[in-house]
């Protein structure tokens, strides 16, 4: 049997950490930490860690003035992504959000079309429509007290779309800067609006949460945020955003299974059918996506 390559191992590690992140974050949010307080604390800690790593390895955080606009734009999209993420988990469940994130490759390909980095034949859209039909089924099946609300589903879709857009925006910069330097700048810029938005919750937060919650916050910061950020964007740089995102198709279903087992969540027949439709749409679209090198 062929041994997995370093790139394949890197993608598998990323998928595993992301899959755990949904369950871990859902647990944190249901055990006392408010959504925006969690997001801001996590991002401030991650920005400090990335700053230390980058300065130790590269001795500089300098970027060209021409790239500042793109970096700040990426930070704005990431801010939207994180607000949507924490409230999607707050309003819905980890397993439902996991299934919705399965549509991320479709959004990545569409973002590539808008940015001029992807060329999609007409038949691609049949796969996209199939995936969107799956999202609709997940939404229909999530309208109860167990699975969550329509608001949570819509926020989950926004989480997937904004992550795809962020991945596409950041990819051209990988030719000029390391993933850690980009992450330091983007996460630091994201911290400003995220923390300002979170001020009411930070002031009202009861910080006596217990060691288990804080241990999971540390894991959610250092693993799914810091480690995966570096591994994911190195993968993007080597094989392109659409293909890297498609390689992560397994993650939503692994994440849903972890949430069902560890959090005792339940998925209805409509939600399961929706997840299968999302996966079928990705398979149909995968053969029809033509990747082109990201523009400068």
Describe this protein's structure.
With about 300 residues, the protein is an all-alpha fold. The chain has one domain (about 5-290). The chain has 12 helices and 2 strands. It has helices at about 5-30, 35-60, 65-90, 95-100, 105-115, 125-140, 150-170, 180-205, 210-240, 240-245, 250-260, 270-285, and strands spanning about 120, 290. It has a two-stranded antiparallel sheet. Helix 1 (about 5-30) packs across helix 4 and helix 5 packs across helix 7. The longest helix has 29 residues, at about 210-240. The chain is globular. The protein starts with 5 loop residues before the first helix and ends in a 5-residue tail after the last strand.
Short description:
By secondary structure, the chain is mainly α. It is built from 12 helices and 2 strands; from the N terminus they run H-H-H-H-H-E-H-H-H-H-H-H-H-E.
